[in-house]
């Protein structure tokens, strides 16, 4: 038998172009096995060019990757959970309606760092920062999850310790800005991370400090929405700062957000880049709101009141109609802290 490593064709007996298109149509869940067929398949499926080819031809799948509260053990009488809250990563596919749980980060097998940030890049999940769940100390860890291999790898640490910062993907780069340092001082610094090169590069700082801000990508712009200065604890700004990908310059936008309102995980983008809060859109999601844009739909979760059950919805971007997601199992019914869209 001839080894598949020595075969000149991607699929024996088929032209190269046809073989490439066959692999393009593989669902991402099959990639873990497909990369084991031969070295050529592995190199192709893990290449940047192949990922963007799948994306251009419409064979990637949009999914919401969510930092979700895990079901905890209860006291013997069942009255309340035991121990600190534990979070994991849940993947929801709106087209198929399927829910799945990503394997834990090896360094944190019992739960993610508290308040860590999640974003995506080229079909991968990136988890950054947060607090060590055992001692509540801020960490600078960076972890990348490859859906192709379904494995985690550790990236280069963030250059600065920061918590409650803005993060997002812009043209294949991860941008982080604002937040606060280990001494609770608000930050105005910003960095970009290249996940493939595993390198950090310092960017120009914003015009002012912004703690507990929210990162939003609109077209070729990275928005850092609201936040507050060190001396104005909890007094959220109504302004935002915008960085254009080509120039790298920050531009301040006044009255971009409702002053005094926390923007964390709930910023929506309307017509003409008008920002709004999803918490103001429906009485079922007044508290603990998380939103993730998914193309024609937006995934939204939240509760009607403090301590109430979490509701899950897909909102039609054209009509604004809230569609309840039914049939969710108990293990996926927990509070959603934050999330991002991943084109897998």
UniProtKB/TrEMBL annotation:
Gene3D superfamilies: Kelch-type beta propeller (2.120.10.80). GO terms for biological process: negative regulation of cytokinin-activated signaling pathway; regulation of phenylpropanoid metabolic process. Coiled coil: none annotated. SMART domains: Kelch. InterPro entries: F-box-like_dom_sf (IPR036047), Kelch-typ_b-propeller (IPR015915), Kelch_1 (IPR006652), KMD1-4 (IPR044595). Transmembrane segments: none annotated. This is F-box domain-containing protein.
């Amino acid at each position: 038998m001839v080894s598949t490593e020595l075969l000149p064709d991607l699929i024996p007996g088929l032209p190269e172009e046809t073989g490439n298109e066959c692999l393009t149509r593989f669902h991402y869940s099959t990639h873990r096995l497909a990369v084991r067929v031969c070295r050529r398949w592995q190199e192709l499926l893990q290449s940047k060019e192949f990922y963007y080819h799948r994306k251009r031809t419409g064979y990637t799948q949009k999914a919401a990757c969510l930092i979700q509260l895990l079901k905890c053990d209860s006291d013997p009488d069942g009255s309340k959970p035991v121990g600190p809250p534990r979070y994991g990563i849940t993947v929801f596919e709106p087209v198929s309606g399927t829910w799945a749980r990503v394997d834990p980060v090896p360094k944190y097998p019992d739960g993610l760092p508290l308040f860590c940030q999640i974003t995506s890049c080229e079909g991968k999940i990136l988890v950054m920062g947060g607090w060590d769940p055992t001692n509540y100390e801020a960490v600078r860890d960076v972890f990348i999850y490859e859906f192709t291999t379904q494995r985690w790898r550790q990236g280069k640490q963030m250059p600065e310790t920061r918590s409650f910062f803005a993060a997002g993907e812009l043209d294949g780069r991860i941008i982080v800005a604002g937040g606060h340092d280990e001494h609770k001082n608000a930050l105005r610094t910003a960095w970009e991370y290249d996940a493939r090169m595993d390198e950090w590069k310092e960017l120009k700082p914003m015009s002012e400090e912004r703690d507990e801000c929210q990162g939003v990508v609109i077209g070729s712009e990275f928005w850092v929405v609201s936040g507050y200065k060190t001396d104005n604890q909890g007094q959220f700004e109504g302004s935002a700062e915008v960085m254009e990908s080509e120039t790298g310059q920050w531009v301040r936008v006044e009255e971009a957000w409702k002053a005094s309102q926390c923007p964390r995980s709930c910023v929506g983008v309307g017509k003409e880049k008008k920002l709004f809060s999803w918490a103001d859109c429906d009485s079922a999601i007044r508290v603990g709101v998380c939103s993730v844009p998914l193309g024609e739909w937006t995934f939204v979760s939240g509760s009607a009141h403090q301590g109430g059950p979490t509701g899950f919805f897909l909102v039609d971007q054209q009509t604004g109609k809230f569609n309840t997601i039914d049939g969710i199992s108990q293990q996926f019914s927990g509070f959603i802290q934050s999330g991002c869209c991943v084109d897998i």
